[in-house]
Structures are given as structure tokens and as C-alpha cells.
Amino acid sequence: MVELPLTPAADHRRLLPDGAEATVDIPPEKMQFLKAAFDLMEEPFKQFVAKTRPDWIVVDVISHWAADVARECQVPLVCFYAYSAAVCAFIRPSEYLAGDGRKRVRPSPESMTSPPEWFSFPSSIAFRTHEAILVHPGLYGNNGTGKPDADRLAKILESCHAIAVRSCIEFESEYINLFAGLNNVPVIPVGLLPPEPPKKRETVTDGPWTEIFEWLDQQSPSSVVFVGFGSECKLTKEQVHEISHGLELSNLPFLWALRKPNWAADDLNIFPSDFGGRTSGRGKVCIGWAPQMEILGHKSIGGSLFHSGWGSVIETLQFGHCLVLLPFIIDQGLHARLLVEKGLGIEVERREDGSFTRNDIAESLKRAMVSEEGQGIQARAREAAAVFGDRKLHDQYIADFAEYHQAVKQG
């Protein structure tokens, strides 16, 4: 790893918290200032590339200035998407990201609430209205940096020599092939990049977690719901309380790992009154960090209520757990549609404004965990584990990706 300076401009420095270097460090409304600071890394990055002369530059979709660096330094560029191919195909043919193409196919949030015209087969991949209202201005609108995210995407796509996607043919061949047909450069699946599964429980030595894993050991196999919404989702008090009541109403055993909300004065003020007392023995809650892979790998876990972020999807399905999907931000809604389409999960019902109730949570959990419908989902999730957890398969994807680079280098 090589450290490059992230130095905000003077007018942005006062708007970012000290030490803020990633989206997890800031609230959504300050994202534009982090992007502006990130854009100032172009010059030190250019100096690094000019000095080291790498064979390739692999960048994500925000680093639009890397295209200029790659061209000036004559280094081929690869665009890397950390999303499913279904999400990539929905959003990212470059001719529809800017200019007249965007104005024609994506003039408003409503235009994102149905599968796009370039989809050549039946699909459910589209945003809900409440999601599109947030995503459309976030993607196409001005963000204070002078470069909307869609323009950043378009520049990278138009400049790259290849596109790498965190996916595999075995899971979504139809969307990989569709996305490949929408681009003028090779689209290369690099596998799902599953994290290494935990080898020993002894790696978890923290006091509270020792107690929690002892509790998990006492539960029936595949009976516990793991609940987690990651570090990016900032749940409101109402959402936390409705999820809490939903877990209580479901009568299912659960383990909830929750990052402390910024609206809570202390841990005691997070949940509804006496929530812990009413669910004592049946549920466990941990505020803060959680050993997620060790939890998901425990034999008592059978399902997961989560945000459907792609990384968490991969972590969960490599253990074959059924999915209860409650998406909140950016790509999560599209991934939820994909997983329901594949028969691997149930999405929590929501109102037109995106709100949900405790009954919506409880009903979705019971459908996934104890109903006849859920048995089919559980069976398909176990089958999916043979793909998502196959390290040999995904290592081969990386080997093929490296081989492609070598072949291009040698001409």
C-alpha cells in the first residue's frame, strides 16, 4: 500500500470532520466535500504513476481524473465496478450518462422506476419511487464538485481499455452478457471476491462476544436471524424502533449488530422501552463492531435481515443463508430486486414514501424463515453457496483477469 495525501481545499477543510477519508466517516450531506478533496489527489497520483510506471491502472467509477493521468502517462486504464452486473447494466451505458442521451432516457426520477429500454429480456431491475427520488439527483445533479457522478462515470467508461465487474457467469450470466454488449471494450467478470471464511472461533476473544457465541451455541441449527445494516446506513430512531418491534413480533431468535446511531445519547436510549426485557433469551443485541464472518459462519444462523449491499450479499450467500432485504441507499434497492428475481430472498414491503412498519418486518421474517415459501428460498440459498463460497472458482477468475492483462501487455 502506498499512502497519498488527501488534502481538502481550505474552504472544504472546515466542512469535513478531522481525519475524514471515507464515506463511513461523514454524513451523506457532506459527500460532495469528500469528493472535492478526493479530486485534489490527481496531482500526487500522477506523480506516483509517472515515477512507478505501472502496467495498468485499475480505478473505481468516481476517479474520473485517473483517465487523464492514464492518458498522459500512457498507461492502460481498467474501470472496476464493485457491484453486480445487473446494477452496472441498469445505470451505465456511457452514451446515456451525459448530454442528449441522458436527457432522453433519464430525464427524471420516474425514468428510473422501470427496467431500461436496452434490457433485452424480462427483468425486475429498477428503483422504487422513493429510491429514485434520491438516486437521480445524486447521480445526475450538481454535487458541489463541478462534476456530477454520471459525468465521472462516462469519462472513465469512455477512456478505459476494459471493465472489470465483481460478479461471475455462474450467478448472473444474462446480465454480464447484456452489460458486455452495451460497451465497446471487454467486460471481464473477476469473480465475487468472497472474503476468507473464519477458520477458528478462538479469533473472537472479546468478552461480550464470548457470551454471545455461547448463546448461539445453544440455539437450534439454522434458526437465528442475523440483523445488520453495515456502517453506511444511518437508521432513524423510527426505523430502529420499527425493526425492533418487528423482531419481537416475529417470535424468531435473532442477533442484531447495530452501529450506535448519532441521535442516541447512550446505548440505553436506542431501543423501545423494555425491548431487551421482552426479548430476553430469544434475542441478542450488540452495539458497535461485530465479527460478521464468524457470526455468519455459525451453524445456528439461518437467515439475515440486512441492507442488500453487494459485499454483504456475497458474505451471506457463501454460507447459504436466506435473505430478508431492507435496502436503504444507492445500489441496494437494485440488488434487492436481483436477489428476489433469483429466488434467494424476500424484500420487506414498504409504502410509496419508503416507510415500513413492524408488521412488514415480522411478516417478511416469518415468510423467509418458517413458511413453505421460505423453505424454497432456503434451498436455493444453499445451492447458491456452492457458487458464492467456491474459492477455487473465484481464484480462477482472478487468474484469468491477470492473464488478460499479461496478454495485452505482450501485444
Automatic annotation (TrEMBL):
Q: Which Gene3D superfamilies match?
A: Glycogen Phosphorylase B
Reply yes or no: does the keyword Amino-acid biosynthesis apply. no
Superkingdom assignment: Eukaryota
Q: Which GO-annotated molecular functions does the record name?
A: UDP-glucosyltransferase activity
The Gene Ontology biological process annotation of the record reads: flavonoid biosynthetic process
InterPro entries for this protein: UDP-glycosyltransf_plant (IPR050481), UDP_glucos_trans (IPR002213)
What CDD domains does the database record attribute to this sequence? Answer: GT1_Gtf-like (cd03784)
Q: Name one Pfam family in it.
A: UDPGT
Q: What keywords tag this UniProt record?
A: Flavonoid biosynthesis, Transferase
Family (UniProt): Belongs to the UDP-glycosyltransferase family.
Protein name from the UniProt record: UDP-rhamnose:rhamnosyltransferase 1
Q: Which organism is it from?
A: Rhododendron griersonianum
